[in-house]
Amino acid sequence: MSVDQSRATVFFDRDGTLNPDTSYIKTSGEFVLFPDAVTAVKRCNDAGILVLVVTNQSGLARGYFSQADLDGIHRCLREQLRDGGAWIDDIFICPHHPDDGCQCRKPNPGMIEQAMARYPIDLAKSYVVGDKSIDVELAAKTHVKGLLVTTGPTSAEELRMIRAHHLPVAYVAECLQDAVDWILADVECVG
Ligand SMILES: [Mg+2]
Ligand SMILES: [Zn+2]
Which of 38, 59, 145, 182 could disulfide-pair with 170, CB 3.0 to 4.6 Å? Predict the structure, then answer.
């Protein structure tokens, strides 16, 4: 770790990235990580990278599930990681409806701003990994590298959007392990 303590950071999207996006996961019983997620996150942990989750959860505003349900889902997420020796350092949630005009719903940068207020983050060594164009757009807005994983339900459409809007995408990964391979090599290069 560098002397100034500011850390390389990976901001992982949740649905479609760490776990299959089954459209509004409402209970912890529905939550299961992708098979390669534990190892992918553990490799980031072992490399000293700060691991954060940034997730839009408008299902809260829509009344599809409660904060207690979401807390239960995230306990389940943490337990599944812990069983494999991996962990998430923190989870940032946008609970708002798209019509609320909040600053935290991706692609708005609010969740990354919240994270930067709480942790010493080295933006030059930071990455957003997600399955949607909004994740790549978030990365562009916050001047970090954006990686698309094509494990979401709409990956072809997301790639079209990224190209149509000329969003800078650092790497298109076929799975989480592929994304983490790229990140660990890049962190080395950036030094
Ligand atoms: Mg997603
Ligand atoms: Zn929000």
Answer: 145
Q: Is 83 a catalytic residue?
A: no
Mean pLDDT by 10 residues, the chain (191 residues): 77 98 92 97 98 98 97 97 97 98 98 97 96 98 98 97 97 98 93 69
Please say if 100 is a catalytic residue.
no
Domains along the sequence of the chain with CATH: 7-190 (3.40.50.1000)
User: What is the distance in A from the centroid of ligand 2 to the CA of 91?
Assistant: 14
Ligand nearest to the CA of 133: 1
Model pTM score: 0.96
Q: Distance of CA 132 to CAs 23, 86, 136, Å?
A: 14, 24, 7
